[in-house]
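Record now logged underneath.
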Amino acid sequence: MNFIKKLIHIINRSILNKLIISFIFIILLPIAIISILSYSKLVDNIKENYYKDQNQILSTIDTSLQMYLDDFNRLTYNAYLAKDSIQLILNSDNDNITTRVSNINLFNAFASNLVGLRDDVEGVYLYTMDGYLFDHSRYDGMKQVFDKAYDITAESWMKYMIDSKEESFIIGSHQQGYKLEPQFPFVITIARKITSYETGEIAGIFFIDINLKMIENLLAGEEGNDIFILDEFNHIVFTHKDGNIGKRFSQLYPNVPIDSIEEKKADIIEDNNNFVISKYNDYLKWKYVKLIPKDELIQKTNQVALPLIWTSIICFIAFLVVSIFVSGNITKPIKLLKDTMLKVQELDFNQKVDINNEDEIGSLAKNFNIMIEKIQELISKVYETQLKKKDSEFKALQAQINPHFLYNTLESINCLALISGAEDVSEMIQGLGRMFRYSIKQEKDLVTLEDEINHVKDYILLQAIRYEDKFDIEYIIGENLFRAKVIKFILQPIVENAIYHGIEGFEDKGLIIIEAKVVDKDLLIRVLNNGHKLSCDKLQDLQYQLNSNIQDLSRYDRKGKSIGIHNIHLRLQLQYGEKYGLSINNHKEMTEVNILLPLNLEEDNHV
């Protein structure tokens, strides 16, 4: 959530960011969506075609293998029909050695005519229910069964055929126990129960063993890799993977849901590492399973899809570069206009916007330049008017008061006081004279902090005599700050407020502290008194008034509230800006008035 808020904040910071995001959503986002959908569709088509191809391969293998096994199944049926050979052998007394030898020759002749010289046939066999096994095999290594030392019925596949009610069988890959060191250890057995024509009962089982050469040829090539042929018990009939024929498929791939294949729930399933394509043969009850490693399929899809991805990325980058370039050209004059406005905001009215566009931005810049010119004219007129007004006011003041007359009168009173021995009166008159001379000096409004402090000292001199040592005053001012330039009459009214509203009527002895120090390259003057503290309502009211705009401050000052406070704050803000002025707080057990103004030290050495 914080990330989204930060992103929205970054977007809202500039028109350039908004334009770029707009281009992305209007142009680039559709390209990205189309590319993603096209890629997804392409991958799906590749997978679908690949699945179809693999399924077709499995269907071809299934058809070929069934035709191949059907040929052998027909051969076993021919044995069932052979009255002059197979029926004769089954109905003979094979316990008689002479008869048995004759039957062996008869069986070899029949088997030789039946299968010929096929190299995929390992042997042709006839098992009689009285326990004898007749064989015709090109392989010499056979266990002796005539003496019944070897019990073929102990073989699981033979036991299955004997116990089954079915007549014909195709037994998947297995090893024959009656062979000694065979060249092909695994064979497929095609078998049929033979019913005696004489008794109508099962007299024997005729079966043919074939090796896996044909299936190996059928699955030759790259497409045959990772194909498994499973029998109805899910034993592996054939695979190119060495050492796995005859094993249960679940031993090798326990995560593949082989039951879904058997129950025809799905033609395409998957485990953690492979896609599995399968086909089920109802007649044989065999399954054909093709394992496709997911990495292999991803590689095949990437070979086709990567050009599309790279094309989309290149288009995306190209459109992004174009959108940034176009957005930059649109916002560059706007940024220039904004920077110029910021300089004008800092009262630099000598700025002009150099934009020659013929569009709306160019028109806006032209009108802005006209506005600046008019502001400059108005400022000049207002400044000239103010100068004339001040000059007229000063002349009117001079016309009303004759300073020399006042000086001479005060000096005469001072002489009379000295003659009369009233030294305290003389001292007060001298202090009042200095204050009067300070107030009517025909100088600029800026004076040194030392002048202001001396003016306060003269005022304190008069008040100390009046209040008979009711309060003390302390000055905490660094020597280098005495020559700092300040506005005239900013300290005495605040000290006067401290005496009248704080010290007067205070039971304990009062203390006034005047402190000056540098704070962040500004001059901070603090006036504290330990007299009556301001009530919360009065303090909040004063703070609200001091935080008002200049027009409201002028109204408060005309009402005469809080002697001089509003006037001083208004003069400071008019002179230096709204950052500066007065602030009032209750500081611990004292009332604190802070005066903040720029630090301006005199260049000469006057103190």
The longest helix spans residues 15-81.
